[in-house]
Amino acid sequence: MQGRPRLLDQVRHRIRFKQYNIRTERARVDWIRRFILFHGKRHPAAMGASEVEAFLTHLAVSGNVVASTQNQALSALLFLYREVLDVELPWLDGMERAKKPSRLPVVLTREEVNSVLAHSASTRGPPGASTDHSVRRWAYADARSH
Predict the structure, then answer these.
(1) Is the pTM of this model over 0.70?
(2) Is the pLDDT assigned to residue 19 strictly greater than 90?
(3) Is 12's pLDDT higher than 60?
(4) Dihedral sign, CA of 79, 80, 81, 83?
(5) Residue 36: which of 45, 27, 26, 23 has the closest Cα?
(6) Which domains, ranges and CATH numbers included, belong to the chain?
């Protein structure tokens, strides 16, 4: 019986047609599979925005995922609905968004480096360094290069 290809095969075909990376294909297919399983193996064509919202909210609340992971799942589901099922979903307003983590500073100021070094138990610096002054100069230069 030659019928229409299975849904995930349709997704793979569409991704390959658009020449996406194989990792993108695997990630999107995995998110779509998880979405289907989350809703008791219901076909996505029989579902809509409320089911997408429920799944993404579940990821943020119960799954405890970071914002980028939730966005990846959202992207996969939007691809499914827009590119494979040819359904435009209304904007997902009721969805609980994962919180972005607060960012730590990458570069320390000269005062911060001096403070860290002053409280450090070790005064050992790079190989060959022998004075506290050279340790501070090395640590400051190292912090500025990152």
Answers:
(1) no
(2) yes
(3) yes
(4) positive
(5) 45
(6) 7-84 (1.10.150.130), 110-145 (no CATH)
